[in-house]
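Appendix B.2, paired examples.
Example (i):
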Amino acid sequence: MAKLQAGIIPVTPFQQNCTVLFDPDTMEGVIVDPGGDVEEVILPTLKQNDIKIRAIWLTHGHLDHAGGALDLKDALGVPVIGPHKDDLPLLQGMEASAARFGASEMKVRNMMPDRFLEDGETVSFGDHVFEVYHTPGHAPGHVIYFHREQNFAHLGDVLFSGSIGRTDLPGGNHEVLLESIRTKVLPLGDDVGFICGHGPGSRIGDERRSNPFLVGI
């Protein structure tokens, strides 16, 4: 198996980490969380790098992560997979959320994924298999993706370098988020490197030792 490669495309004024996961031998892969800037940034980047996208994976239904999913699906003709069904109200309320946040210029479109995900499922492209974990707290239907063979995870907005996801948005719950981190994220292992929804990635062990939000959990 070729080593999994990842590229980050920062998109929208939220500077969200739209992530391309791909196999360098086949140049096939998936996009995680296309929050926007589909025509302006995402499609040109894929074309320049000759990456063939087979699916769109969502970690959760907030507009900065899922706002461009329907446009990208229309452009590429690929399915949208995830998140968990508990985020359906968020996915179908993105246009209203954009108006509330003063972000109507993002061209957000409400959408329904082709497939919701459940805790314990797997998703894959080529030989690359990812385990799916339901991790509510930041959003009710948030999921994370874990590539066990290469000690890599995409954690969306659950855990950041030095911080955790915000819980003051609709459906957020601080204690639930900490429980998701304690029972689903930390057990993945200290050696696991991760990409998150905003900012730089990290390793789970580094966050266990130094992240002030994880003290005592």
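Example (ii):
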Amino acid sequence: MSLDATRAALHPHESRQRLEHARATRLAQLQALNETGQTAEDHLLSVQKAAIQRVLKEIDHAFARLQDGTYGTCLGCAKPIPAERLEILPYTGHCVSCQRRTAS
């Protein structure tokens, strides 16, 4: 899929909506965890909060890429990220191949 095809498949407005939904969902999850009444020393709670905060940072970076026109382009190989991947993970900055390499 060409870069133009990826961008056409995910209109910036749709991408922004997906990112806003992802952010709102994570903020609601974080609020729910804060309202559980469990202490911050609870290991599982700490891990969950850290994971949500990490995703929130990724969402912020995705908003910045959307703003500067690089959204939808892999940060690893500079090829287009498939529209299907962006629909599932709107905040991803990597194609599947590059994500696997960074996870290793």
